[in-house]
From TrEMBL:
Classification via SUPFAM superfamilies: Nucleotide-diphospho-sugar transferases
Pfam families (alphabetical): Glycos_transf_2 (PF00535)
Protein's name according to its UniProt entry: Glycosyltransferase family 2 protein
Coiled-coil region(s): none
Domain Glycosyltransferase 2-like: start-end pairs: 11-178
Residue stretches spanning the membrane: none
Molecular functions per Gene Ontology: hexosyltransferase activity
Length: 336
C-alpha cells in the first residue's frame, strides 16, 4: 500500500500580519466547517505581535493546518505563496479578521460541482461593523449582496469589486492558467477578478451570507492607498479599455455621463488609456459643455459610460437608459 498522502479536496489560504486579536477565531471558523476534507494554509507575513505563536499552537493541534512564512511583505505576496503551496483541486480565500460560517466550504463546493460552467464563486456576507464611518461600507455590502448571477457580475464589474475577497472559492485551474495576485499600486483582489473576467471566466455568488465580514479600522481597505478610490478607478480604466475594444461599437469613442468635478477627474484615467471622450451627459441643462440627459439620441448612436458615483445615481441612470431602449453592455456601461 502506498504511503503517499492523499491531497485534500480544498485548500483554504489565510494570510496574516499582526492579527493576534482576531486570528484564532478566524482559524477556528475554518476548523469547524461541516466539510472536513481541506487543508488550511496559514501564511505569516512578518508579524511582530503574538500572531505567529497563536498560529503555531493551533497548527500543533490539527494536522490539516500548514504554517508557512512569506518574508516579502504584502498580502498579494502572502496569498501567492499560499497558492504555490496549495494541493487542493479547489482554492478558498480567508482573511485573518473574518469568520466563515460553518457550512461555507460545503455549500461553495456543492455549488461549483453542480454548476460546471462556473469556475469562480463567492457569496453574500453578513456585515459586522467595528469602526466609525461605516455608511459607505454598508452601502457597498448591500450592493454586493444584491446580485449573484454570472451575467450580473459581468455587467457590474466596473462599479465595484464583484465578489468580496474573503468569500472567494475557485477551481485550481484558474490560478494555473491565468496567474495569481499581482503586487503593485492597485487593489490586488479587484485586479485579479477583472483579469479573470477579461479572460472569460464565469463567476457567481451564492445568494446567502456564508461569511461574517468584520470591518475594523485596521482593515487594509481603510488604511492602504492601494485601495483608494483613485486606485480603483485607474484599475477599472485599464480593464475597461480591454472590454471596450471587444464590446463598444464606437471604440475608442465614448460619452461620459457626469460633468461634475470628481467625474471629470476620474474620466482622465480613461483618456490615459486611449479612450476618446466625445462629450458629456448631465442632468442639468445649464452645463454649456454637456448634453442634457433628456436630449440624448436613440440607441445605436453612441456609447455611454456612467461615472457618477453618488449613492443611487448609477441605478437611476441605468433605469433611464433602459427606458430609452438602451441595452446595458451594448449601448452603455456603469462605472460608478
Amino acid at each position: 500500500m502506498s504511503s503517499e498522502k492523499t491531497n485534500p479536496e480544498v485548500s483554504v489560504i489565510l494570510p496574516f500580519y499582526n492579527a493576534e486579536n482576531t486570528l484564532q477565531a478566524a482559524i477556528k471558523s475554518i476548523l469547524n466547517q461541516s466539510f472536513k476534507n481541506f487543508e488550511l494554509l496559514l501564511i505569516d507575513n512578518n508579524s511582530n505581535d503574538n500572531s505567529y505563536e497563536i498560529a503555531r499552537r493551533l497548527a500543533a493541534s490539527d494536522s490539516r493546518i500548514i504554517l508557512l512564512n512569506e518574508t516579502k511583505q504584502g498580502v498579494a505576496n502572502a496569498m501567492n505563496f499560499g497558492l504555490q503551496n496549495a494541493r487542493g483541486r479547489f482554492l478558498a480565500r480567508m482573511d485573518a479578521d473574518d469568520i466563515s460560517l460553518p457550512t461555507r466550504l460545503e455549500k461553495q463546493l456543492q455549488f461549483l460541482n453542480k454548476n460546471p460552467e462556473i469556475d469562480f464563486a463567492g457569496s453574500e456576507v453578513k456585515y459586522i461593523a467595528h469602526s466609525k464611518n461605516t455608511a459607505g461600507f454598508r452601502r457597498f455590502v448591500a450592493r454586493a449582496n444584491s446580485f449573484h448571477t454570472s451575467e450580473e457580475i459581468e455587467r457590474k464589474r466596473f462599479i465595484e469589486i464583484p465578489i468580496i475577497n474573503p468569500t472567494l472559492f475557485f477551481r485550481r485551474k484558474l490560478f494555473e492558467k491565468y496567474g495569481a495576485c499581482l503586487d503593485g499600486n492597485f487593489p490586488e483582489d479587484y485586479e485579479m477578478q477583472l483579469r479573470y473576467l477579461e479572460a472569460g471566466v464565469k463567476m457567481a455568488k451564492l445568494p446567502e451570507p456564508l461569511l461574517e465580514w468584520h470591518d475594523y479600522s485596521t482593515r487594509l481597505t481603510r488604511t492602504d492607498k492601494r485601495y483608494s478610490t483613485k486606485a480603483f478607478f485607474k484599475t477599472k480604466a485599464a480593464y475597461f479599455k480591454k472590454w471596450s475594444e471587444k464590446n463598444n461599437l464606437f471604440h475608442p469613442v465614448i460619452w461620459v455621463w457626469g460633468a461634475g468635478r470628481k467625474t471629470r477627474q476620474r474620466s482622465v484615467f480613461l483618456e490615459e488609456q486611449g479612450l476618446k471622450i466625445k462629450g458629456r451627459i448631465d442632468i442639468k441643462e445649464s452645463k454649456d459643455d454637456a448634453l442634457f440627459y433628456e436630449d440624448i439620441p436613440g440607441p445605436g448612436k453612441l456609447f455611454v459610460v456612467s461615472m457618477v458615483n453618488n449613492t443611487g445615481a448609477g441605478e437611476n441612470i441605468r433605469k433611464f437608459l433602459l427606458s430609452k431602449n438602451y441595452s446595458e453592455g451594448v449601448d452603455f456601461i456603469l462605472m460608478g
